[in-house]
Design goal:
InterPro entries: AAA+_ATPase (IPR003593), Chromosome_initiator_DnaA (IPR001957), Chromosome_initiator_DnaA-like (IPR020591), Chromosome_initiator_DnaA_CS (IPR018312), DnaA_C (IPR013159), DnaA_dom (IPR013317), DnaA_N_dom (IPR024633), DnaA_N_sf (IPR038454). The protein has 467 residues and is α/β, with parallel strands linked by helices. The protein folds into 4 domains: 2-90, 2-Layer Sandwich (GMP Synthetase, Chain A, domain 3), CATH 3.30.300; 105-287, Rossmann fold; 293-365, Orthogonal Bundle (Helicase, Ruva Protein, domain 3); 376-466, Orthogonal Bundle (Chromosomal Replication Initiator Protein Dnaa, Chain: A), CATH 1.10.1750.10. It is 55% helix and 10% strand. It has helices at 8-22, 24-30, 51-60, 62-72, 105-110, 113-121, 146-157, 175-188, 198-210, 214-222, 238-253, 274-281, 293-310, 318-327, 332-349, 355-361, 376-386, 391-395, 401-417, 422-428, 434-450, 452-466; strands spanning 2-3, 35-40, 43-48, 78-84, 89-90, 165-168, 193-197, 226-230, 257-262, 284-287. The strands form 2 sheets. A 5-stranded mixed β-sheet has the order 1-2-3-4-5. Strands 7-8-9-6-10 form a 5-stranded parallel β-sheet, with helices on both faces. Strand 8 (226-230), helix 11 and strand 9 form a beta-alpha-beta unit. Helix 1 packs across helix 2, helix 6 packs across helix 8 (175-188) and helix 7 (146-157) packs parallel to helix 8 (175-188). The chain is globular, with a radius of gyration of 24 Å. The N and C termini lie far apart (52 Å). The model is unreliable at 86-124 (pLDDT under 50).
Amino acid sequence: MTDANAYGEEVTKFCAVLRAELGDAIYSSWFTRLELDRITEGCAYLSVPTKFLKSWIHAHYYDKLRAIALAQLPDISEIFLSVRTSTFSVVSAEAEPAALARGAGAQAAAAGAPREIYKEANAGVETSTLDTRMTFATFLVSKSNQLAFSAAQEVSRSSSIYNPFYIHAGVGLGKTHLVQAIAQAATSAGRKALYLTAEKFMYSFVSALKSQNSLSFKESLRGIDILIIDDVQFLQGKAIQQEFCHTINSLIDNGRQVVIACDRTPNELDNLDERIRSRLAGGLCVEIHPLDDELRLKIVEARIAATKIVQPAFDVSPAVVVMVANLIRTNGRDLDGAVNRLLAHTTLVGAVLSIEQAENAIRDLIRHREAKRIKIEDIQKLVATHFNVSRADILSSRRTANVVKPRQIAMYLAKILTPRSLPEIGRRFGGRDHTTVLHAVRKIDALVAKDNALKRELDLLKQLLED
């Protein structure tokens, strides 16, 4: 391992080139807190202080960052971006906190055995760390995640028709908890399961290439019963994606199980090769929906019960529990934070919190409800219904006026209501070029400026999509 300080001059030049390429505004907004932690076996490990910053750079600037790093830092063949803690930098996906339910101390102790079985079964592969609290027993279930939970249990028992099994959800809704529960249940039953984050997969592959041990790496992956890849949206690099595609194809074709967790659907993974997206979409794709009222209440009650094991004096009234569950509607991590704040205030005040005191304690966590994630398919269906055409018409090459206008409106809405790029929108509209999408957006923009009726029509469609 090489200390990052040894590359002081190269790092300074790297930062200067990055600033020149991206401009002062972008560099100041996103890269001033980027640090080079270390260089190991030709891999540069960069870190940022927050997971949001890491995700944003991955989504918008990773290719540029990688190209400049490989050009400016000597003997570098790959880069890895992670989230650093206060004392050291770790790959953020491996340090991801428990998602929906953190078990009580007794449950965590009872779940300790699978980790040793898991390590022994995968002695030839560098695995990602399992959190022994993330089991099926500690996963809290409601209507929002029942299908994903039931399918995950089925997959953990034996290779099934749900192959690949693909779970997607927003942050803090439990996808990592479920896939780790699959790994631990499978290993407890004597199956060879391998859990890897996408970043660990990339690191292992690059290390195998460096050590000229790629054949052993491939054989290790293909010799397991169940492969689990978490945060697949971070999978980067053509060679790595090719190996990933070959691996999952080989496993599925030989009756082995593949499990994938991601923050979006396969069709929305713009950075992945089309063959991978197609293969992933061919299995069972399940979404874990936002937390409903029942589940939020269960989570708060479970967190308080777990906390009382180590802090017996911690007492929260039922009214405060209901208030917290109603006010914090985002995800399990924010509910974790709320319980921690209640604990701190109870400890400091030394009395049961009133409703007003509890609300003040969690004020920083109370947010407006997250906007609904709108999908291009939803836009196409709504616009087709509204204009009395079919979705197939919108995706077709027909050029009649009654089809062209709805198609252009659907493209326009896709551009302003989703984070998809112009090329991706074009691909989702029958494989059209990005210039076609740009033309549609500009045309609808121009029409809206002078046609109030069309503006009201678009406002209605937006409202229907956002509700």
